[in-house]
Design brief:
This protein is mainly beta. The chain has two domains: 183 residues, no CATH class; 85 residues, no CATH class. Helix content is 4%, strand content 45%. Strands 11, 12, 13, 14, 15, 16, 17 and 18 form an eight-stranded antiparallel β-sheet that branches. A hairpin with a 2-residue loop joins strand 4 and strand 5. It is globular, with a radius of gyration of 20 Å.
């Protein structure tokens, strides 16, 4: 089976894309239903792209250009805070953004998303680590991570996420005992304390069980977590949120750097999808 060549996306922004036709090599401006780039006119521009190759019995049966991804608010916050993460542990945001998971949620992705809507096996609790690389060209640099997820049964895969940690659902099993605008405390199971040489909860999100907010953990002791400046953010719209209740249950989850929801890719037992994620950084700002 011959897989037709796909148009090459040269640039996308504002709901349109500049593409090169693989047959004629002509360039044209088209509507971009997959989403627009995130950029700043006249400055540094960023946009992400997700591609997928569907394999069955070791044979390529489908190639999918899933278009622009969607870098999340949590991902941007983590990236802006890169100066504060432990350099000796390589806790840079892009260094950690290498753990792929898929799901079956159907609601359009939003920058406010902090987790996949419906995790699907085999990535219900643990993501798949990718292989990272730099795709470099004159004045055009891309971060790339590639990972293959293999199905344990029949699924309609409709979403994908890129995370800062392999473990996707890390429940503490204990409630808060105190909260503030910049910290949280518990006295149950001891956390692994963070330091310049120990990750602890750095670059992980604390999510209360009742108040619909989240905080990005900057550091922690065995029972106290300090969250990144400006405190708690609303899940709904990413604006400043209220401090959660002092006795709420909570979970610790990874930063989901990018999220994509797309038309279903139907897989059966032992099918695999190789996801290729690229983040393009264009200079000029």
């Amino acid at each position: 089976m011959k897989i037709p060549s796909l148009p090459t996306v040269l640039w996308r922004a504002g709901g349109v894309a500049l593409v090169r036709d693989p047959k004629s090599w002509g360039v044209k401006l088209v509507k971009d239903p997959q989403g627009a780039a995130t950029g700043f006119p006249g400055g540094v521009q960023f946009h992400s792209h997700l591609g997928a190759q569907h394999f069955r019995g070791g044979r390529l049966i489908g190639r999918h250009d899933l278009g622009s991804g969607l870098v999340t608010n949590a991902g941007v916050l983590a990236l802006a805070n890169d100066f504060a993460w432990s350099a000796s542990l390589n806790l840079s945001t892009l260094g950690l953004a290498n753990n792929h998971a898929w799901g079956t949620g159907a609601t359009a992705a939003a920058a406010t998303d902090i987790a996949l809507q419906t995790l699907a096996a085999p990535t219900t609790t643990t993501a798949v680590a990718g292989v990272q690389s730099l795709i470099s060209a004159a004045n055009l640099q891309k971060y790339q991570t590639v990972a293959t997820i293999t199905a344990g049964g029949s699924l309609a895969i409709t979403e994908w996420g890129l995370h800062s940690f392999l473990t996707l659902t890390a429940s503490t099993g204990t409630p808060f005992t105190a909260t503030s605008a910049s910290s949280w405390t518990d006295t149950g199971s001891a956390q692994t304390a963070s330091s310049p040489t120990v990750r602890g909860l750095q670059q992980l999100i604390v999510r209360p069980g009742t108040t619909t907010v989240w905080g990005l953990n900057l550091s922690n002791t065995t029972h106290v977590g300090t969250i990144v400046t400006n405190g708690w953010y609303k899940v709904a719209d990413g604006t400043a949120g209220s401090t959660p209740g002092a006795t709420e249950a909570f979970t610790i989850i990874p930063v989901m750097f990018d999220h994509k929801v797309f038309a279903a890719i139907n897989v059966v037992l032992n099918d695999s999808i190789a996801f290729t994620y690229q983040l393009t950084v264009t200079s000029g700002g």
